[in-house]
Amino acid sequence: MGPQHPSMHGVLRLIVTLDGEDVIDCEPILGYLHRGMEKIAENRTIIQYLPYVTRWDYLATMFTEAITVNAPEFLENIQIPQRASYIRVIMLELSRIASHLLWLGPFMADLGMRMMHNYFRIGGVAADLPYGWIDKCLDFCDYFLRGVIEYQQLITQNPIFLERVEGVGFISGEEAVNWGLSGPMLRASGIQWDLRKVDLYESYNQFDWKVQWQKEGDSLARYLVRIGEMRESIKIIQQAVEKIPGGPYENLEVRRFKKAKNSEWNDFEYRFLGKKPSPNFELSKQELYARVEAPKGELGIYLVGDDSLFPWRWKIRPPGFINLQILPQLVKKMKLADIMTILGSIDIIMGEVDR
Amino acid sequence: MQGRLSSWLVKHGLIHRSLGFDYLGIETLQIKPEDWHSIAVILYVYGYNYLRSQCAYDVAPGGLLASVYHFTRIEYGINQPEEEKQKMQGRLSSWLVKHGLIHRSLGFDYLGVETLQIKPEDWHSIAVILYVYGYNYLRSQCAYDVAPGGLLASVYHLTRIEYGINQPEEVCIKIFVSRKNPRIPSIFWVWKSADFQEQESYDMLGISYDSHPRLRRILMPENWIGWPLRKDYIAPNFYEIQDAH
């Protein structure tokens, strides 16, 4: 099955061995969209690199920006104002909804949009929310909830859909952990592992929401997990929009001089650069692994800093790449038509698989 | 009436059959021949360090033959002196020292994740041991170039997935190899999520992983020459300034 096919999964080539209608083996060939993102990162400052990151997962662009900005923030111990953190959470959850909807689109019907935001900055966000945005956001939430209920009635009770999807592509919890899956694929197999609850980053612990999971481990379970996540995202957005504090939206005093590392905010010793982070943002010689819960799974960055403007190693851990490993195992003994169902339920984006 | 070791093995999903207890109350288990070498390592790690006796007998005329192993654990009554010396040693590091497994502790990374360095020869056994210890999720495997003209490093981030925990245990393992002959044993057979990731490290940096089922270029075209992510890599036919050390 060649690199281009009409169902918009991106450029993925599958070499499928068939016996009549049954699939014996399947080998995915990647690399058609490889752009050398990691090598490029070694020669760009973080600000220069931000426009690149939206091209990894172009449906949920906020997550790629969030992780690109979070990794250096952890490295340099930068605190973000509360308001910025809430704004980020709202944006992330909206982006998660967009990604799941777009997954639902080629999976079922036709809708979707693609936006390159370039919105997050180190220390906060680039611009504050415009006047009236919050009311529009709340209206969208109500409209969307009704839409989700409508989709559920159309789809989940539909016997044709159920027959195509139930029992297809089963994976057990133990195997899912061993293969390194993450995100809805892991949660659909009974493992309640959600980085937003486990890692507690970005003020997610101030909202009241539950981890969505299912026990069955087939494509239907994955579908239900994603629909459930969309509803939980709406809940989070409604709570965040209600509780959002005032205050600054960006931490302007982002870079301190190395000597005064232990000083407090308003101390006499506190020194700062009183301007927005320009290309002079330096990474110290430490390394760390930062991660977020993207809609596709665990998106991680392993950053080795170098005491200079450019990172020494910027390794992207893409959820789609690791979730795709299990495809050959899932399609064994399935029919040819099920391959697309399984591929769709794994929810991969070639932009981040190949980078 | 399941014995203690039997319940522990069941909890870790190791196939065996419990044969009850013998006349002096010793727990007896039956293991399949195929599983024996891995379960033997696991029992050793569990703590049975003394093979007291090994014998064999004929079960029935025309029937099976049995090979019998009696294990026990010999322990010392005093604390080992290593534990007192290095106070800043991470928890996993102290556990490995206690069991005599050679490694070097590289301290902690910036978020407090313990980092250990392991030699390539020891890696496959220590990988099994870590799996048994509880690290069941290989989060990310990557590789990088330590210094121009220096070593190559292969990095593994492991964590334990469990229900209902905050701040899960994690560890970062690094293996350093020379540029001339970079070979590391593959741990695909322990954690399957290393499949594509080791292929990518091979593709980008040239570290070959022994006993990986299909090690080949995954992102670059099959006939590409050179290891792109090395610092001394020069992109061919690219006539602008390149930063190769």
From TrEMBL, chain A:
Entry-linked InterPro entries: NADH_Q_OxRdtase_suD, NADH_UbQ_OxRdtase_49kDa_CS, NDH1_su_D/H, NiFe-Hase_large
Keywords, ordered alphabetically: NAD, Thylakoid, Translocase, Transport
Keyword Transport included in the entry's annotation: yes
The keyword Thylakoid appears for this protein: yes
Domain of life: Eukaryota
Residue ranges of domain NADH-quinone oxidoreductase subunit D in the record: 111-355
Family indicated by similarity: Belongs to the complex I 49 kDa subunit family.
Name of the protein described by the UniProt record: NADH-quinone oxidoreductase subunit D domain-containing protein
Species annotation: Stylosanthes scabra
From TrEMBL, chain B:
SUPFAM superfamilies reported for this sequence: Nqo5-like (SSF143243)
Keyword Cytoplasm: no
Subcellular location: Mitochondrion inner membrane
Boundaries of every NADH:ubiquinone oxidoreductase 30kDa subunit domain copy: 117-235
Catalytic reactions of this protein: a ubiquinone + NADH + 5 H(+)(in) = a ubiquinol + NAD(+) + 4 H(+)(out)
Gene3D superfamilies: NADH:ubiquinone oxidoreductase, 30kDa subunit
Swiss-Prot/TrEMBL keywords: Membrane, NAD, NADP, Plastoquinone, Thylakoid, Translocase, Transport
Main localization of the protein described in the UniProt heading: mitochondrion
Membrane topology according to the record: Peripheral membrane protein
Function recorded in the entry: Core subunit of the mitochondrial membrane respiratory chain NADH dehydrogenase (Complex I) that is believed to belong to the minimal assembly required for catalysis. Complex I functions in the transfer of electrons from NADH to the respiratory chain. The immediate electron acceptor for the enzyme is believed to be ubiquinone.
Similarity-based family: Belongs to the complex I 30 kDa subunit family.
Matches recorded under NCBIfam families: PRK12494.1
The name this protein goes by in its record: NADH dehydrogenase [ubiquinone] iron-sulfur protein 3
Organism of derivation: Stylosanthes scabra
